[in-house]
Amino acid sequence: MSQWHCVATLSDLRARKKKAVDVAGTPVALFLVKDNVYALNDICIHEQRQLSKGALLFGKVICPGHQWKFDPATGQPDDQEGCQPTYAVKVEDDGTIHVSLDRVREDA
Ligand code: FES
User: Fold this and answer.
1) pLDDT at site 83
2) Span 71-86, pLDDT tens digits
3) Residue 66 Cα, ligand 1 centroid: separation in angstroms?
4) Could you identify the atom of ligand 1 that is nearest to the CA of residue 68?
5) How many domains does the chain have?
6) What is the CATH number of the domain that holds 50?
7) Distance between CA atoms of 100 and 23, rounded to whole angstroms?
C-alpha cells in the first residue's frame, strides 16, 4: 500500500512554479506545468545540483548545473543518458499536494 505525504498546496506553487520539499527525508522538487504538478528527486543525476533551483522552459525542467533538460513527467533528459527519479503526485480538491515515494506517475 502506498504512503502519501502531504507536502504543499497549489497556492505554494502558483507564483514561482517550483518548490523544494522534504518527503520523509528525500529531497523532492515540485513543478507546476500547465496546471499539472510533477515531483522529481531534487538532486540531479548528473552532478548533484538542485533541480528546484533551476528553471522551467517550454515545459522542461532545466538543471542549474549544466542545463540538462528533463521531462517533468518521466525524468528523461534530452540527449543524455540516465533518468531522474520521479514520484506519483495527487492533488486534492482543496489544493493540497500529496507525493508518494513508492509509486511512479501513471502517465509517465
Ligand atoms: S548537475 Fe544537473 S546537469 Fe549537471
Assistant:
1) 95
2) 999 999 999 999 999 9
3) 4
4) 3
5) 1
6) 2.102.10.10
7) 8
Report CA-CA distances (Å) from 52 to 1, 2, 28. Answer: 28, 25, 8
Residue 86 lies in a domain: yes
In this structure, what are the phi and psi dihedrals at residue 58, rounded to the nearest 5 degrees? 50, 40
Its pTM stands at 0.94
46: domain range? 4-100
For the chain, the 3-state helix, strand and coil shares in percent, each to the nearest 5, are 5, 45, 50
The amino acid that residue 28 corresponds to is V
- What cell does 72 get? 517533468
Assess if residue 34 is contained within a domain. yes
d(CA 86, ligand 1 centre) in Å: 16
Give the residue, out of 42, 43, 46, 50, with the most ligand 1 atoms within 8 A of its beta carbon, to mutate for a pocket test: 46
Confidence of residue 106 (pLDDT cuts 50, 70, 90): low
Torsion sign across C-alpha atoms 40, 41, 44, 50: positive
